[in-house]
Structure formats: C-alpha cells, structure tokens
Amino acid sequence: MQDNPLKTALIRSAYKAFAKNAFKKVSTNEIVSDANVSKGLLFHYFENKQNLYISLYDMAWKMVRNHVFENFDFSNRDAFERLRIMIIKKSAFLLEHTTIAQFIKRVHLNNDPEITKKRLKIYYHHRNRDYKTIFDNIDTSYFIDPNDAETLCKLASSTFNRITAEWEKNHVNLSSDVALNILQAELTDYVALFKRYFYA
Q1: Does domain 1-47 have CATH number 2.60.120.230?
Q2: Nearest 5°: CA angle at 122, between 110 and 81?
Q3: What is the pLDDT of residues 81-129, one digit of tens each?
Q4: Within a 10 A sphere around the Cβ of 40, how many other Cβ atoms?
Q5: Residue ranges of the chain that CATH labels 1.10.357
Q6: b vs e for 150-175, b when ≥16 Cβ sit within 10 Å of the residue's Cβ?
Q7: Helix (H) or strand (E) run with residue 167 in it
Q8: pLDDT tens track for 52-71
Q9: Boundaries of CATH 1.10.10.60 in the chain?
Q10: Dist. CA 67–CA 128, nearest whole Å
C-alpha cells in the first residue's frame, strides 16, 4: 500500500474504522490508537479527518484500477469483451477485499454535501479514465456502423453498470465464487446480445 510502514499502518486502521462505522462516528483517536501511531502523524499526512477520508476513497479506486489493468489483455480489441472483463476483475477485487468494498459503500452513503461533492469528483475521474482506457484502440470495424461505436460503448457501459449494481444487492449472501459466476454468466449473455444486434 505504502513504502512508509507507519503510514501503511495508519491507512489500514483508517480503512478498518471507516468500513465499520459512518464518518461522524469514527474518531481520529480510534484510528491512531489501533495503528499505534501518533495523532500528529495523521495530521502530518492528511491534515484532518475529512482529508483522510477523501484520500482513502481516492486510494481505494486506484487500488481497484491497478488490479483491473495489471496484465490486462489489450490485444483483444472487442469493446464489449473488454468491458465484461473489466467489470469482472473489478468485482472480483472488491469481493476479495471486503474492507475496501465496505468502506466504498459507506462513503457512497455519506450525505454530507462537501464530502459528496469531493467523492463524486473522484468517482467520475476514475470511472471516466477506466472507460477511456478500456475503449482505447478498440476495433470499430466489428460494428454494423463504425460511427455508432462510441454511442454503443456508452450504452453497454450504462447497461453493465446497472446489472452490476443489481447483482451486488441480490447476491450479497452468496459465496464470492458463486456470486462472481452468476455475474460472469449474466454479462456473457449481454455481450452476446450486444454483438448480435450491433456487430456486422
């Protein structure tokens, strides 16, 4: 996570605390005590509790991105296949790293206007960058009309995001492997559907 062991301990403790409780219920004393570091160290790196919270959120999505695009097969230039693989890798990471996943959910439930504004800016920055990476250098000749490629990629992205959101709600009590297999099957069916109607 970080090269500095004290900062690493601080970050891990903060993730753990914020994953369990809402922002207002977590104290900086709790975080530094669990990490066995001084409060001065927390303020040295993050200035205040809100900056820590927002920084953790940004780091969380960077971790997800690093996992998704590490060894990603960009030789496959099929837009819909790339999108499916990205979502599966992202979902697998969050299923495996439950503290990070729970933390992200809690941030999304936070209704403080200032935090929400900062959170949305970070979220859309990472989401837009991921989609730009995924759809870079796709083979548009697959499409019936290559000029429609950008619009149809946006449609597929929106559809797959909705499917993933529903999957997260409906399969929360299943084992990770079973849940991931269900998502994989559903996305594969939709990929086949998109190809049937939008590919030449």
Answers
A1: no
A2: 110
A3: 999 999 999 999 999 999 999 999 999 999 999 999 999 999 999 999 9
A4: 9
A5: 49-198
A6: eebbeebbeebeebbeebbeebeeee
A7: helix 149-170
A8: 999 999 999 999 999 999 99
A9: 1-47
A10: 17
